[in-house]
Amino acid sequence: MASRRAIQQLGGFALATLAWILCSVSMCLPQWRVWCFREPMDSKPRMTLVGMWKVCIYHQEGNSNISKVCYKYTYQDSFIPLDIRVAQHLLLISSFLGMIATVTVIVAPWKIYSARLQKKATYNLFVIPGILNIAASVFVFFTISYNYLAIIREEGIAFPPSFRTPSIPDTQKVGTALAMATLSSFLFLVGGTIFLSFTLPRRSRMCSNIGI
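Below the sequence we write its predicted structure tokens.
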């Protein structure tokens, strides 16, 4: 029974850690919204990748050469829509919560199985990382929902003229970073649920009840 609990928590730790990595990596990638243009010209890009922290624009040069230019957002950029601003903060919070949860999970087993804890405590230390991971899942879910809605509604962004990209593309589609964040949200939820389902070993409870 104890080994089953250990395997369960190890699986939860692996899923939560993977979720944190995916969340952190997706946050840095520009492939959240993929803008495509049917007829690339000098004044019209071939493709534009709209990310949470930067935009990458691909222009056709000649018959085969394609140039790529990326612009990193700053807090002074007034053209960035509110949904991206909100998503930036939600992703930062999610990544931070995932990091804290990972550290807590590493410390929790040592505390649970130490003699001191067996004498004095009966609470589940995995509750904290469980709650943190589920909270991170919710924040990432809101982020991906904002982006999915923007793609479905075919919303545009009024980029500055220097970006040389129209404010509205011909077509929009989901990018790999958005898919990665979706998987991250799911893994955060599953990992957090596993942590919350953890129960203390019977011996720990018995020792706490008799004060040994």
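Residues 23 and 181 are 6 Å apart (CA to CA).
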